[in-house]
């Protein structure tokens, strides 16, 4: 019974340690895009901001 609890604790600790989320920081282009999403903006300007964000994410 002690062995079962020991194995269960080791399993849970290992599972929790291996599933850490990776923090991904936004690029400046994506921050600009997200900040301007609710602003009244020309559709072409919004497309350029989105494209700049997509391009910066592809470079990572």
Distance linking N and C termini: 49 Å
Helix content: over 70%
Class by SSE composition: mainly alpha
Major beta-sheet overview: none
Q: Any idea what the shape is?
A: rod-shaped
- Share of residues in strands: under 5%
H/E element sequence: HHH
The parts where pLDDT drops under 50 for at least 5 residues are none
Counted by DSSP, the helix tally is 3
Number of strands: 0
CA radius of gyration is: 22 Å
The averaged pLDDT comes out at 82
What features would you describe in this structure?
The protein is an all-alpha fold and 60 residues long. It has a domain at 27-36 and 44-60. Helix content is 72%, strand content 0%. The protein has helices at residues 2-18, 28-36, 43-59. The radius of gyration is 22 Å and the shape is rod-shaped. The N and C termini lie far apart (49 Å). The mean pLDDT is 82. This is Lipoprotein. Residues 1-17 form the signal peptide. Keywords: Signal.
In summary, what is this structure?
The protein has 60 residues and is mainly alpha-helical. It is built from three helices and no strands.
Mind sketching the topology for me?
Layout (H helix, E strand, L loop, with lengths): L1 H17 L9 H9 L6 H17 L1
Helix pairs in contact: 2-3
Offer a few descriptive terms.
0% strand; mainly alpha; Lipoprotein; signal; rod-shaped; 3 helices; 60 residues
């Amino acid at each position: 019974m002690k062995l079962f609890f020991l194995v269960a604790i080791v399993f849970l600790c290992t599972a929790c340690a291996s599933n850490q989320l990776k923090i991904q920081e936004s690029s400046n282009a994506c921050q600009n895009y997200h900040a301007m999403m609710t602003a009244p903006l020309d559709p072409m300007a919004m497309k350029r901001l989105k494209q700049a964000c997509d391009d910066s994410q592809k470079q990572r």
